Amino acid sequence: MGPFAFSAKLTRREYRHEISEEECDQAKANGLLVVFGRADDGVELQGVIEDYVDAYDGTTFEVCSKGVKPTWRHCEEKTFDEAKLFFDLEKLPGFKIIAQWDQNGRAWTMRLEGNSLPEHYPFMIFEDGEEFCEGLVIDMNGLVSGT
Known about the structure:
By secondary structure, the protein is α+β, with helices and mostly antiparallel strands. It has one domain. The protein is 22% helix and 43% strand. The chain contains four helices and ten strands; from the N terminus they run H-E-H-E-E-E-E-E-H-E-E-E-E-H. The chain has helices at residues 3-10, 21-29, 80-90, 141-144, and strands at residues 13-14, 32-38, 42-47, 51-54, 59-64, 67-68, 94-103, 106-113, 120-127, 130-139. Strands 1, 2, 3, 4, 5, 6, 7, 8, 9 and 10 form a ten-stranded mixed β-sheet that branches. A hairpin with a 2-residue loop joins strand 7 and strand 8. The protein starts with a helix and ends with a helix.
């Protein structure tokens, strides 16, 4: 299943029921990354990358084929291993995800930024009949394969 069909499948889901475990496995098998806001302080990533990004009041972070790229300030101990991981991931192609809080009448809006963006499609999560989050389904196959 491609990113367009997968985003259509997730559209109109209710908050806290955005994606099932089976669908997470399906997204992963198809090289897809599903990104959506959680509560008022985080961004959930499911599929080929499973992670959670602290995002109180919104945030911007970068992803690559290996996952969320750390920022230098997040390498708290500045150990050799943290520095190596930071510089190894810095070399990999990726793109930024902008998680905007309280925009366009909804709690979360996800956007991509970068020079060469992968194919991606939005989907809408609802809470009690109101738009809560505009998430994204992103085709990571080009990045996952290293191209």
